[in-house]
Predict the structure.
Amino acid sequence: MKPRPWHDRRGLTDISTQTLSHVYPIGSRVDDRGHLLIGGCDAVELAAQFGTPAYIVAEDDLRARARAYVGGFSALYGDCDVLFASKAFPCTAVYRVLAEEGLSCDVASGGELALALRGGFDPARVYLHGNAKSLDEMRFALESGVGHIVLDSLHDAERLERVAAELGVTQEVLIRVTPDVSGETHAAISTGQANSKFGFGLADAPAAIERIADSPHLRLVGLHCHIGSQLLALEPFTRAVAALAALGDFDVYNFGGGLGVAYQQSQEPPSIADYVATLVGAAKAAVGPGKRLLIEPGRSLVANSTVTLYTVETVKRNVSTWVAVDGGMSDNLRPMLYGSKYEVAIASRMPGFGPARQPNYELCQLAGKHCESGDVIARDVLLDDPQPGEIVVTPATGAYGYAMSNNYNGVPRAPVVFCKDGNARVVVRRETYDDLSRRDVE
């Protein structure tokens, strides 16, 4: 059976993208002039008002995907929870939206914990992860009343015991297990294989379970696994569930995240509905009834909610045509780290839309402004006669764009702009040159 198009997803409604690539946010469209609209806002006008580069977020897309996860999971299994894997987009306004939608939260550092609390998450619904948690982070978590901490090693457990004893509390914990299951993804974001920096291997997990179960200050409630990110097949998740089930009977099973997304029109990931159904079916078969099931989507919640806008600064033709923009590896490291591929379009002349004209496409390299030859956002993309001053858009930048943004070459970090019903608001302002030295003490 042919997979359903990504934009035809059970549980995701109000989709009016027509023939626009499904990598754009839900509700995106193109007007009669050929201008891209995100959340009802003209992308060219957004660039003029807020400057570029800028992360443009369709708020309704965030909410629709959150509801698809919560509704889809709860419809199939009663005692369950959806945790936002917030490392994907650790922005206070994003935390706030997903807290409002009823999600819990997974944080991987003290900083993410602080942002989650600021964004309105109940600390009792926060899960602290990390393979190298500091004592200060553990203390902050316990003092904040974090509901669960996921233990990654025996040293992790010993340090948490010490902090819990000092504070006179008993902390509920899960053990992260590396199930020796890996899906097809980039090596840098594959985490379920036996040779991983994360979690206890299958051979070591039984002793860790026994050791932590005997702790007077830790209460072991369940197991956790996360086999990797940007996975486009469901079968590895089934194997991971079976591997956890073989380790014993627990109240809680956290199956992590990892569902992939479409970065290009040719990609058709599994739907949220199919992903959740696969996990629930595997859990019912392997761990039995009466368990609490958790999942931790990150990328699949936020990636396609966002586009990045750039201004073309120069066009240079030598062996290739180099279209250089005012951002790059300071706002999107993924192409440089993982060879990630993106679609690119001129936001005022979206391909196939607008007034009839004869396009003049050429193969281009979308280059960043940074002092690295590797600072190329997208290679070998077709653009219609790109000119300096035009606005280009790269969709599907909501996951790990803002999260990994940086100040390389002293470039101030880009703003985050939320769009909804034709209205736009800045939720994270653009950095200034003064911000670059604000932490200096001399």
Summary: The chain is about 25% helix and 25% strand. The mean pLDDT is 91. The domain at 29-58+303-436 is CATH 2.40.37.10 (Lyase, Ornithine Decarboxylase; Chain A, domain 1). The first strand starts at residue 29 and ends at 30.
